[in-house]
Amino acid sequence: MSDHPYIELKNICKSFGTVAANRNISLTVNKGEILALLGENGSGKSTLVNMLSGIYSPDSGSIFIDGNEVMFHSPKDAIKAGIGMVHQHFKLVDILTAQENIIIGNKNASFIKSKELSQKINEVAEKFQLSVNNDKKIYNMSVGEQQTVEIIKVLYRGANVLILDEPTAVLTPQETKTLFDILKNMKKQGCAIIIITHKLNEVMEISDRVTVLRKGQSIATVNTSETNPRELTEMMVGAAVSLEIKRTETEKSSSPLLSVKGLEVTDSENIKILKEISFNLFGGEILGVAGIAGSGQKELCESIAGLIKASSGNVLFMGDNILGLNPGDIIKKGISMSFVPEDRLGMGLVAGMDIVDNVVLKSYKQKKGMFVDRVYGKELAENIVKRFEISTPSVNHTVKKLSGGNIQKVLLGREISLNPKVLITAYPVRGLDIGASYNIYDVLNEQKQKGVAILFIGEDLDVLMELCDRIMIINNGQIMDIVNPDSVTKEDIGLLMLGHKKEEDSNADNC
Amino acid sequence: MLTIVSKTEPSALKGNLMRVAAVIIALAASAIVMAFMGYNPFVIYGKIIEGSLLSAYRLTETINKTIPLTVLALGVAVAFRMKFWNIGAEGQMMMGAYGAALIGFQFSYLPKPLLLILMFLVGALFGGLWALIPALLKTKFSTSETLVTLMLNYIAIKWVSYLQYGPWKDPKAVGFPKIANFSDNAILPKVFGVHIGWIITIFLAVLIYALFKKTKLGYEIGVLGESETTARYAGMSVAKITITAVLISGGLCGCAGMMQASAIETSLSDQLSNGIGFTAVIVSWLAKLNPLTVIIVSFLFSMLMQGGNYIQSAMKIPSTMSAILQGIIIFFVLGCEFFVRYKFVYKKKNNGKENA
């Protein structure tokens, strides 16, 4: 090994307006090494790697590759220098095949020699032991396969430095394992890998060293073998944090508050998105919903909340059928059901309005007359700000200018202030940092203790298993099973999410 | 290498100072154009002020132009707040004037106050219904309201032309294509030398201000403008709000048409709108959809129009000079919005070695 690291970032600074996203960050990566970049949301991880991949250019500081200083003006320069990035949201063209996606943007030849190319792609794939079907269209692929295509695309262009931005966020446990095998392989081949994540168990499993960022500064770089999750969390958050989510024990209501029977939803092309969904939701419990992205979670929430039409089935709220009512009717009927949608600023809140105008969104109609009661609104907003410890200059502050965690608190605060009996939450901690997430879990537990029935659509299986009393696993719009988290493993749930029923597994063994 | 960088939003005061600076720079830039054309810019600016403010008659003319412009811009603002891009103020004004004229001619025997109120109501109704067409097409078939409102302008203007050259042509005008004048009781009275429209205009501006800031409907229009999904999530009836807001928007434009026909033209004419429906879009946008600011911006634009007419008659300078001035001011003020949000940063180009 040479005496200098393969990649070195020195005193990198980058500001957006008055916000300093990166302050004097330095880090190094060697060949044949996996570096984990750990930090909460907004700590500057993405900004940093975007500079390494040529999307931003640093305000000051320098980047060295193999001992030579480089300056990237565009992603093209970075690709030329052998740096490839796999983004969190894949940049693939759905209707094209894997091969077409891999060669997209390569302008070396005017004609595409298909055979030659697929041979070349296969060579790359073989070298790193990746498997991909070159002629499969992207829309027919699972998320894991799509990610493999992204990785091959980068390698095909000759990258020997790979940056992965939260690669496991969308993967099932099984797919994650495959990815990690790939990464270990690449490491053996001498690639330098940077992986961004905030899942500590993954950091411990895959990385050689960890660089922790906090508020735009690098706090420390440690060898993975010499640290532990607790220490890493403390560095990341800046204070000791308990990593356990308590599951409070409460008495369940005797009869279900919400009862869904045979719910089916079809899309505009008459394809069933939800099939025969039936379950009961009791007061005083948190029912988790697990499933890979796009398995019908969104449609489940929105059909119960009256935002989209169901083609058949019943939704009973304390015995009354509410399916077919629109959200206005549901509010008017005094049915205390709250829905915290995943798209906060696009659905749950009015981004350009202040906190006052946002907290009255669902209750402004209750007051008679033609005027909006902003005196009451201000009082309500002040209460919510105080109770949920929302940090904001004032209640007249525009919501979109708040941080993600505070935005979520405004939304959750409004819904809880309506004293719901049933609370539906979709990905309530998405994009929030650890502290804010735990805050939200506490709020949900508090509601559960008050006897509220909670439907929790989640994505992090660890959280689902710790927080929920029962977990419903859906795959492709169907309920696979409803399980007790204490009696199953994460891998069991992972298999169900992929659509493997337990019986099928035993059948497969017989073959 | 110049790069564009977004910056934090400046305070309201600083933002407004930047906009005032933009107007001053625009005036300076226009001065250069005037100098090139061989005129002394200071004289022209002086004459524009003189011609729009400095006599009772000229001031009245300026206010007469401010009245319809303000009311049209208010109407546009209501639709724009909902992100319904109504650029059909011109046509809605024409249809409003047509509705008012129908009543004015048919019921000329009614007592003056009653007739005028009836003309207002029908004018507003016609303007509102004319705006409702694109709204219904949008809610039913998701057509683009921008295109439909624009096209309906020409239909409305040509409809009035047809009346003027055809069935409504005044036989007493000896072949001249013009519609007969209203009887006296269909003409708005004057208060302090200007037709009563100025009081109505201020009243409407305050009313729309209250609509935006205080009422449930205004709140709903704002929410719907931000996100239709949010509006539906909150249980609002999107169709009902859209239709109500569009009726108000078109209704205001109809009112402007009624006032213009009754007080200024004292008749119906295809020259009635004369493009101010489009100017209203600019006014509304420059005023950031604030009903009270709309009055001020309308007055300034009317000064330019009136001043332009004056320099044409007094100095034989084409009134298009003031149109150029208007264009340059709009260019600079809208361009200034870019600098409120972004800045240029100069970066030293460094061709680093990239031999990886």
Keywords:
heterodimer; A: 511 residues; alpha/beta; Rossmann fold; 18 helices; globular; B: mainly alpha; two-stranded antiparallel ribbon; two-stranded antiparallel sheet; 13 helices; 71% helix
What's the helix count of chain B?
13
Task: Please give the CATH class of the largest domain in chain A.
Answer: Alpha Beta
Rg from Cα of chain B: 23 Å
How many β strands of chain A by DSSP? 20
Architecture (CATH level 2) name of the largest domain in chain A: 3-Layer(aba) Sandwich
Strand arrangement, largest sheet of chain B? 1-4
Give the spatial strand order of the biggest sheet of chain A: 6-7-8-3-9-10
The fraction of residues assigned to DSSP E strands of chain A is 15-25%
Quick rundown:
The complex is a heterodimer of chains A (511) and B (356). By secondary structure, chain A is an alpha/beta fold. Chain A has helices at residues 45-52, 75-80, 98-103, 114-127, 143-156, 173-188, 200-206, 229-237, 297-304, 327-332, 344-348, 355-359, 374-387, 404-417, 434-449, 461-467, 490-497, 502-510; strands at 7-16, 19-29, 33-38, 60-65, 68-70, 83-86, 161-165, 192-197, 209-214, 217-223, 256-266, 272-282, 286-290, 312-317, 320-321, 337-340, 422-426, 453-457, 470-475, 478-483.
Structural topology:
The complex is a heterodimer of chains A (511) and B (356).
Chain A: E1 7-16, E2 19-29, E3 33-38, H1 45-52, E4 60-65, E5 68-70, H2 75-80, E6 83-86, H3 98-103, H4 114-127, H5 143-156, E7 161-165, H6 173-188, E8 192-197, H7 200-206, E9 209-214, E10 217-223, H8 229-237, E11 256-266, E12 272-282, E13 286-290, H9 297-304, E14 312-317, E15 320-321, H10 327-332, E16 337-340, H11 344-348, H12 355-359, H13 374-387, H14 404-417, E17 422-426, H15 434-449, E18 453-457, H16 461-467, E19 470-475, E20 478-483, H17 490-497, H18 502-510
Parallel strand pairs in A: 3-8, 3-9, 6-7, 7-8, 13-18, 13-19, 16-17, 17-18
Antiparallel strand pairs in A: 1-2, 1-4, 4-5, 9-10, 11-12, 11-14, 14-15, 19-20
Chain B: E1 2-6, H1 12-36, H2 41-53, H3 56-81, H4 89-106, H5 112-141, H6 145-165, E2 190-191, E3 194-195, H7 197-214, H8 216-226, H9 228-233, H10 238-265, H11 276-286, H12 291-315, H13 320-341, E4 342-346
Antiparallel strand pairs in B: 1-4, 2-3
Helix pairs in contact in B: 1-13, 2-3, 2-12, 3-7, 3-10, 3-11, 3-12, 4-5, 4-6, 4-10, 4-11, 5-6, 5-10, 7-8, 7-12, 8-10, 11-12, 12-13
